[in-house]
Every structure is written in C-alpha cells, then in structure tokens.
Amino acid sequence: MSGRLGQVGQARRAGIPAPTGQLTVPEVENRADRGKRARVGWRGACGRLCLALSLLLPAAVPGGEARPLVDDPVLEQRLARLAQDLRCLVCQNESLAGSRADLAEDLRREIRALMRAGKSDEDVVAFLTARYGDFILYRPPLRAETWLLWFGPLLILMAGGAGLFVYLRRRTAQRVPQVSAEQRRQAEAVLGLQPGGPEQ
Amino acid sequence: MVPELGHFALVMALLLAATQALLPLAGAARGHPAWMAVARPAAAGQLTFVTIAFACLAYAFLTLDFSVENVAHNAFSQLPPIYRFTATWGSHEGSLLLWILLLALWTVAVSAFSRHLPRDMAARVIGVMGLISAGFLLFILTTSNPFRRLDPVPADGADMNPLLQDPGMVVHPPMLYMGYVGFSVVFAFAIAALLAGRLDATWARWSRPWTTAAWACLTMGLALGSWWAYYELGWGGWWFWDPTENAALMPWLAGTALIHSLAVTDRRGSFRAWTVLLAITTFALSLLGTFLVRSGVLSSVHAFATDPARGVFILVLLTLVIGGSLLLFVLRAARVGPGGTFELLSRESLLLVNNVLLLTAAGSVLLGTLYPLFLDALGFGKISVGPPYFDAVFVPLAVPLLFLVGVGPAARWRGESLPDLARRLRGAALVSVVAATVAVTMLDSWRPLTGLGLFLALWIAATAASGVVERVRRARGGWLERLLAQSTSFYGMTLAHLGVAAAVVGVSLVSGFESEQDVRMKPGDTVPLAGLTLRFDGLSRVEGPNYLAARGEFTVVRPDASTFALRPEKRLYNASGMTMTEAAIDPGVTRDIYISLGQPLGGGAWSVRVYHKPFVSWIWFGALLAAAGGVLALSDRRYRLRRQGAYRGAARSACSETAATPGSA
C-alpha cells in the first residue's frame, strides 16, 4: 500500500495529471492499478493539479512566444559547450549537457553561478576536477599515464604504415617477369576477353 | 517442469556440441569418413536442443513464471506480451542463450550450404563452430543458468528495464548478435584452412559470402542501436561512444577491413595470411565485445573483481580462442605463398591502405574503451574517455579512408599508372568540388568540417557513378543489356559505397547545423523552429499497460497554416518507479523535428527541449543502403554457380590466380 502511495507522489512530482472527469472528486480511484484497488487521497494535490488542469484548455489561454528556460542565452551556450565535454557522474554514460539527473541539474546550476561570477572555463574545470577528480572530464588530460592513450592511435597508424611500406617494397622487389602490354593484348584476344581495365 | 526441461535441453546441447567438435575434427585429422559424417547430424541435433531450451525460456517469460529467477528479475505482471517475449533475451543469461541459438543457426546454415566443399573441410568448419558453441554452453550452464528457480516464489517481478521496452529493442539485439556470431563462420573457415594446411584462395571464396552476410547483419544491428538511442534516450544524439557501442563498432571496423581483404584474396590470391589473421581478429573482437558487455567489467572494475566467476570464464575462453588460433597461425602461416603480384599503385595496395586505416580505427576504439579500465585496475584512479577523444582520433582517420572509397574501385588490379588513374577520376573530382562549393555557399554559415564532409560524400557518389558509366560503356549490347551484364557484386559494392556517402551527408549536416532550444512553455505558448511554429496545447494523462504518463500535446503549424500533432511523453513505470522520456519526432528527408518533455516548472509550465536535426535520417538510411549492398553482393551469380560445380571452379581460379582475369565478374 505504501508503494502505491509512493507512486502517486511520484506521479505528481513527474507532473502527470490526474485522471480527467474525476477531478472534483477528492478521492480518486487510481485506474492504473488494475488488480488490487487502492483508494488514495488526492486532496493535498488538488490545489495545484486543478490549477494545472484549468490550463489544459488551450483556446482559453492566449499564448505568447515561449521564453528560453534561462535568461542569458549567451552564457547558456557557453555552458552547453563546456558541459558537453563533462561527464554526468551518476549516469551510465551521459554528458552533463544531456543528462536530466538531479545531480547534473545541480552541477549545471553551480557552473552557471561560477560563470556569472566571472570565472573562466578553465577556472570552472579546475573547480570541478578539484572536487570530483579527472573522472568528470570526457577529454582526459595529457599526463604521463595518459600519454599512451593520446598517442596510441598515432603509434598504431605509424606501425601499420611502416609495416605496409616494408611489405609493399618486398613484394614489388621480388616481382616475377612481367607480361608486356603487347603480350597481354594477344592473350586477351585469344581468350576472347575485353581489353583490360578495372574489374571487380 | 518446463524450466527443468529447458535446463536438460541445454545439457544435451552441450553434449552434442562436444560431439560435433571432437569427432569431425579428429576424423578430418585422421582421414576417418565416418567420424567426419557426424558433423552435420550433430549440428542439427544441437540446434534442436538449443531451440527447445530457448522455447522453454520464452514460455517461462510469456507465462510469467516468477519461480524462475531470470523471469522474476526481468518481467512484470503488467508487461505487454511482446516485451515479455523480448525479455527472453533482455537479461545476461537470456542474451547468452540467444547468442548460442544464433550460433547453432549459422552452423546449420553452413552445414546445409557446404555440400560442395571437400568433406574434411566441411567437417573441420562445423567442428570449429562446435568448439565455440561448447565453450559458450559450458559458460551458460556453469555461471549463468537462465532456468534457476527461486524459493520462495515472489508475487510479482521486478520488470524489464523500461529503456528496453521499445519496438527497436525487439529487432536490435537479434540483428546485432547475428552479425557478431556470423563472424564465427569466417573464423571457422580460417581455422579449418590452417588446420588443413591448405591456405589457398579457395577458403577465401568459400567464406566470402558468409562474411558479407554477417557484416550486413552487424551493420543493420548497429544502425538500429543508434536509431534506438536517438529516439529513446530523449536528447537526440545518434552515437555516444559508449563502451557498449564501441564493443559492437570494433568488430564492425575489423569486419569491414576483412570484407575488402577477402575480395583481394578471392580475386587475386594475395594477402592470404593477412586475411586469415584478419578473420581471427574480427571474431576475437566479437568475443571481446561480448565479454565487455556481459562480464560487468564496464560498469565497474571492482564489481567485476568481487564477483569474478563470469568474467574470468569469458576471459579464459577469450584467451583460449585467440591464443590458440594465433598459435596455429604462427605455426602454419609461414608456409603460405605470396599469391598474385601487384604494383606499388594498384587496387591491391589501395585496399591494404584501407585495411591499415580501418584497423587503426578499431585499435583506437579498443584503446579508448579499455584504457580507463586498465588505469583503474592498476590503481591510477578513474578517468573518462569520451566523445572529445574519439572525435579527435576518428576524424583524421575517416577523411583519408573516405577519400579512398572513391579511388579504390577506380584503380586496376595488379598495377595502375598514376596519370591514367587521375584521368579517370578527373570528372568526378571536378563535379564533387563544384557541387560541394555550391552546397556550402548555400548554407547559412561556413564550417570547414561540414564542407569537407559534403565534398567527401559527393566525391564517393560521383566516383561510384563514373565507375558504373565506365563499366557499362565497355560492355556490349543495348544499354539495358549492358547494365544487366554487370555483376550484382559490383552493384552491391557501389550501393554500399553510396550508403557510406549518404551517412557522411547525414553526419556532416547534423553535426554542423543542428539546433537546440530549451524553453519554458505554458499551454498556448509557441516556439518558432525552422520555418514552422510549435504550439504547446497542454497535457493529457495516458495510462499505459505498465506505466502512467503525462503526454504533451503539441501542434506544429506549417507556413501554409496546415498542422500536424506531436506528442512527447513522460512515463512513470509502475514496477520500477523509473521515469522515462519518450520523445516525439516528426521525421523527414531533409530534417527531423524532435521534442522532448523536461520537468514541470509549476503553474502549468514545462521545460521543453526542441531540436531541429537536418538530414539526420540519412545516417540510418545510409547504413540501410550499405547493408542492402551486402545482400546484393551475396546474390552474385558466382556464388550460385559455385554450388553446382563449384569446388573445381574454385580450385581452378586458385591455380590461375596469377593469370589476368579481366572482364570476369
């Protein structure tokens, strides 16, 4: 039973409207729970919900152009750019910019405050790494222990390129006697094939 | 009763897999026809029992048998039937069973289509696949039994992860696994060839269609996964460089290299040892992907260390498979001849460059994925390797690779003169530079990477078109006849390359020009977006089968005043109490409109995220084209002809690999 009550609270927090048509009834049967029925008080929620639902009638409300969620779009863009390279610490693998987790929300607010206080991006990153460590950075800093990470791809490419070069040199050096163009044309004529060219 | 039946079927399948592995391999080694003949019936029997086990698990899920631990943890009484069925492979244990089922399916397919192979070759291939299957069956039976019972039986289950309750998840995992597991076929062919000591071009011809089929499945699996992430995770990204994505991307990159290298070995007999090594690498990366995703090592190195049974088992399996096959390779590959010769500039050498670039990309993904795990395990602390790293590594590799997609098919086998090649590509270069310049000047703002991406896409498309034109011009007869005279594998390749071009268009434009607005909307409020007007009409309440949702009612008004509706949802799942964001998308050829609901802000207002994503659907459309190209290449006449008199044909072409074979297709 407590689970169901908890869920109603959750539904309210998640902003899910109460069932329509039963709004004036303070005790609402929750239809979602199809098996065992539980009667749950909506009285406390009714004030806010009724207000919310009175706004459900679109024609009645003359709307304006929606305001951006935040007042300072320039700052917000700066935040978005920075937060894209930061990790939401409590999520599976999401950036701070994309995450809707509460902690991400809080951190964004905090970064906003730091930016408003005139801190540079570097200051913000320094503050965050001091508090949470390098784990928060999606772009790992170049240090002794990340040297291999950053230069590894180049090393692989160079090793592959060098191997390829040596292999090709050796292959072309031990070439078997080549057929001349004239011989090839003759051979193709004999075989009834079309003269050379790229073939699949 | 039914779960016990399933468990018993798994034990039977293990015994049959062991039989399928040991007898045919021993028979092939000692020239014992009766032992080799066991391969096919054992494979069929194994498939039968694995299917029974899978059906038993599916039955337990469909009937919600909560006495089975796996069902209790991954299903819920209100879960709709379709998701009860997909929950069968939603868990660790179930997905392993799916892995084994698909492996048994591939094995039976191989045994059905391998009648033309020499008896010992077929026996070895099926035997090697039996070994892999036995390893996985042993794994599932000892560490991950999907049929384990619970006592006491819980009244209800914990529900499937809401993220997975989605139509995309019905198709994505089987498709992805078809690809992963499909690479076991080319691996088995490679090992069989090494065991037999017959590393000639024939094994490449035999395994080529299987590799293409697996690659097409993996391509579709990856695309479906990316599409699912796009619409389900609620913020419109299409690739996250998540370790689980990387786990699937690595075998794809290696498999793409393998397809190209197999083409050379098949057509020209060159790179035989290299192709075998690539086949081993590709399957090893598939196994590694399974290990990374399934051992729990990704979420936490320490969780892995405290409950190591599963992880250590896969690690041992991985070491045995990779170590064993590399050892075999070292022992046998030295005897391989060099195959057909070629010049420094030729299609062969360009394909080798393709291989180097693709493998460097795969190696970099591997490095970026494993590096944090190693640092953490060695006590250097936790770091994150995310999109900034992978973007920095990938773009410089992708640019030359995409450029070569245009050059490679235009170059001749054996040898090519640079002036000739340049002359053939002149037209395409001109067209693509001019078209890219025009396109870039039409765009609002100049972004170098977008311009480069558009140029490369146009370059691939133009060279593909000129390739078709050139081949058709050289053929005889009327134009329709000439078009039909080209092989389907040529068209398959062209289509796959066009798919790459389409995906590059999508990636370039969406990363350069997508826009995002975070707004606060009361009912009646509007947002202008790319010439459209979005209006928030309010919320409605939706009761799903196992969730409760607030649905935002949005109307989108076009410039001509016509409208359509978009309905994003915020769902609260009953069993887990998790809230999920269901975005609403209006997909289009040139743009997607993407809305997702944020948080209620009080007073009926909501935070709403609105995205405009130009050309984003081209990414998945491109992947679809590429996979379709693979399917088209599969239907090539060469493979069908082969079935009749084929061993002779394959052997002949292997002998004549140094002879020029122009015009054949």
Measure the end-to-end span of chain B. 56 Å
**Which pair of chains has the greatest number of interface residues, and how are they split between the two chains?**
A-B, 84 and 100 residues
Count of alpha and pi helical runs of chain B? 21
Number of strands of chain A: 3
Structural class based on helices, strands and sheet pairing of chain B: alpha+beta
Q: Low-confidence spans of chain A: pLDDT under 50, at least 5 residues?
A: 1-5, 21-61, 196-200
Cα end-to-end separation of chain A: 70 Å
Low-confidence stretches of chain B: 643-665
Task: Give a quick rundown of the structure.
The complex is a heterodimer of chains A (200) and B (665). Chain A contains seven helices and three strands; from the N terminus they run αββαβααααα.
What do these coordinates show?
The complex is a heterodimer of chains A (200) and B (665). With 200 residues, chain A is mostly helical. Chain A is built from 7 helices and 3 strands. In chain A, strands 1-2 form a two-stranded antiparallel sheet. In chain A, helix 3 (73-84) packs across helix 4. Mean pLDDT of chain A is 69; it is low at 1-5, 21-61 and 196-200. Among the domains of chain B are: 1-163, no CATH class; 515-615, no CATH class. In chain B, helix 7 runs antiparallel to helix 13 and helix 17 runs antiparallel to helix 19 (488-513). The longest helix of chain B has 32 residues, at 201-232. With 665 residues, chain B is α+β, with helices and mostly antiparallel strands. Chain B has helices at 2-30, 33-36, 39-62, 69-74, 81-86, 92-112, 119-143, 168-196, 201-232, 243-268, 272-294, 301-306, 309-333, 347-377, 387-407, 418-442, 448-474, 479-485, 488-513, 617-634, 637-655; strands spanning 515-521, 526-529, 532-543, 547-557, 563-566, 569-573, 579-582, 584-586, 591-602, 605-614.
Throw out a few tags for this protein:
heterodimer; A: 200 residues; Helicase, Ruva Protein, domain 3; 3 domains; 50% helix; elongated; disordered N terminus; disordered C terminus; B: 665 residues; alpha+beta; six-stranded antiparallel sheet; 21 helices
